[in-house]
Specification:
The chain is built from 4 helices and 9 strands; from the N terminus they run E-H-E-E-E-E-H-E-E-H-E-E-H. By secondary structure, the chain is an alpha+beta fold.
């Protein structure tokens, strides 16, 4: 099977608007409640944090964290730059599906905190009582919003030989994801 590729030769740029691919991406986002947030300190030290997240119709992701958490500090020190991996694990190697997002994150502005809380409450399914005071000064916790700029999804595994398999990615059309 020929694969349309971009710069590195393993990224499919043609299937990014395919309705079936977009639906798989939506299902993965809806069916996974934890993501791995990857950040980097200003000195270049990488950090990965699992976080419970919610999302909105524009594919912005939200989570609550302490302002002194390493990932919160790293986002503050690096203009909010970060990456997120959302993945489902399967018992068989090579069968897992993942979403990969790069973008920027920042604290949710105080005036918007009350609008984000229902997203987190609904997603948790446990009826936690959350109030804006839980995430506004003087509380040590804040709500954060990650705005993805580029989104990829796990693509097909290509066999270069019997023993060499290459994982590919599909670069998704963000506007097409949001359109429905």
């Amino acid at each position: 099977m020929a694969i349309a590729t971009a710069d590195n030769g393993w990224v499919n740029t043609v299937e990014g608007q395919n309705p079936a691919v977009l639906e798989r991406a939506r299902q993965l986002l809806a069916g996974t409640i934890y993501c791995t947030l990857s950040t980097c300190s200003s000195a270049g030290q990488p950090w990965a944090s699992p976080v419970f997240f919610a999302y909105d119709s524009s594919w912005n992701l939200y989570w609550a964290s302490a302002i002194v958490a390493q990932h919160s500090q790293n986002l503050s020190a690096n203009q909010g730059r970060g990456a997120i991996a959302i993945y489902s694990t399967q018992p068989e190697e090579g069968k897992g599906q993942g979403l990969y997002l790069t973008g920027t994150a920042a604290e949710v502005p105080p005036a918007e905190v009350a609008q984000v809380i229902p997203l987190l409450t609904q997603r948790s399914g446990q009826g936690h009582r959350r109030t804006p005071a839980d995430y506004l000064a003087p509380s040590p916790r804040r709500l954060y919003r990650f705005q993805p700029q580029v989104i990829w999804m796990t693509g097909d595994r290509l066999a270069l030989s019997e023993s060499i398999l290459i994982d590919t990615k599909i670069q998704l059309d963000r506007a097409a994801l949001i359109a429905t």
